[in-house]
Give the backbone structure.
Amino acid sequence: MSSLVDIRSRFDTAALLAGGILLCVVIAVFSTAFEPDRTVFDTPRLALGFGFLAILGVRYSLGFARHMAGDVALGVVAALSAWMLIPVVHQHVGEAASGFWALAVAYWLASWLFVERMAAWKLTNPSLTRAVNLAIPIVFGITLLVLWELAAKGFGIPKVLLPAPSEIWVRLTGSVPILWADFQQTFLKAVLIGYALGCGSAFLTAIAIDRVPFLRRGLLPIGNLVSALPIIGVAPIMVMWFGFDWPSKAAVVIIMTFFPMLVNTVSGLAAADAMQKDLMRTYASNYWQTLIKLRLPMAMPFIFNALKINSTLALIGAIVAEFFGTPIVGMGFRISTEVGRMNVDMVWAEIAIAALAGSLFYGIVALLERAVTFWHPSIRGSRG
């Protein structure tokens, strides 16, 4: 029975991934790497790097490297294999054959195995745990970018259809003044101002609805109707009302962020149970004291849920609104203009800036949520 358990323990996900790495390396050895007849051994650096990868694959498949040092060695070798693959494929754009793609799959499996092993680490130091938790998505994202680079160059995809990450990076670093001006116009003006006004007005409206029951029956259906308005129909109207500059985009953001904040705040204010309310009444608390000391703290998880949702909706709304009229600056303006000029690398550079800004915005709101709702079970559980 013990031998059967030992056999089963070896055929886990790590063993399967390691076996896949070995299989891919073997296929690459006996296949053509680049057309017409170049093999892996025609590029010594490639052969050396994936030789080490194959050795580590053997050790993992046999269960000899299941420790942190072996995991780190696997990550280093996977990074070296990517560093060797990318320059080679740049020299043979559109000439990749089965051997090259086998090595690319081997790199993908090695990165997958490395991320899985990192996720299984049991660290006692909280700082190291947070660093590893941050490193896991970073490694995963880098792996996707490397695979994107290999696919774009290996298949020889035209830049007008799908530029490689390296081409997007060149465009991004060479267009910093333009990208910064677009970021200021779209994010620092339209998004932030519209986000603050939309969420703030919705919060105050939710307080009024909670205070006056008549407004709950009157305003909530209207808010639901406004949230269902299509942005492509609202944006041109806002441009006609507020002009071509950022105020019209901020107005679109206000419309998009108002209803999620309203609904979540109203639901959060109703989260306090009857026993807690009765306790506040026994202390002779009036409405505002109960609201500030009990109901608003209980509503904070709901409110921050709306703030996180709106952090992405606001950016999307501002960019789409710029398609319908804007000065010669802005992320949406740049995307629509550069698509017409077939400068797809510039479009992807704008998308990258928007994605980074949206992610940082969401992260800031999430950090603020952890600081404010430290008492909530979900936050306490994640810290523990």
Summary: The two ends are 37 Å apart (CA to CA). The chain is about 80% helix and 0% strand. Residues 26 and 201 are 63 Å apart (CA to CA). The mean pLDDT is 81.
